[in-house]
Design brief:
Helix content: over 70%
Number of strands: 0
Order of helices and strands: HHH
Strand content: under 5%
Structural class: mainly alpha
Distance between the termini: 78 Å
Shape: flat
């Protein structure tokens, strides 16, 4: 019987440094592209960080076999999760664009 190598590359060994790099690098990248005062900077930061957390959650759902593609109901709910995230982000994007594009004179 052979012992497993202590240097085996696990998904967590890849995911943790990738998430840490994204948390450190994404704000800097967005500010350099869009500027610190841009109204799209917090939008993209929010949905990118939320997407990372959402993706980790989807990975846990798949890895724990809580959602099985063989069952049609699970397949539908998995699609609802993804489409719901995209729907909410699109709705927020439209409202952000409207807030910036439509003039408002005040009350």
């Amino acid at each position: 019987m052979t012992r497993p190598s202590p240097w085996r590359l696990t998904p967590a060994a890849v995911a943790v440094p990738a998430v840490l790099l994204a948390v450190w690098g994404l704000p800097r990248l967005l500010v350099s592209w869009l500027g610190i005062e841009g109204h799209w900077t917090p939008f993209f930061y929010q949905y990118a960080m939320g997407g990372i957390v959402f993706g980790i959650g989807l990975w846990v759902i798949r890895a724990s076999r809580a959602c099985d593609d063989a069952r049609p109901g699970d397949r539908a709910w998995f699609a609802v999760l993804i489409l719901g995230y995209l729907w909410y982000a699109a709705l927020h994007a439209v409202l952000t664009w409207l807030a910036a594009a439509v003039p408002f004179k005040g009350a």
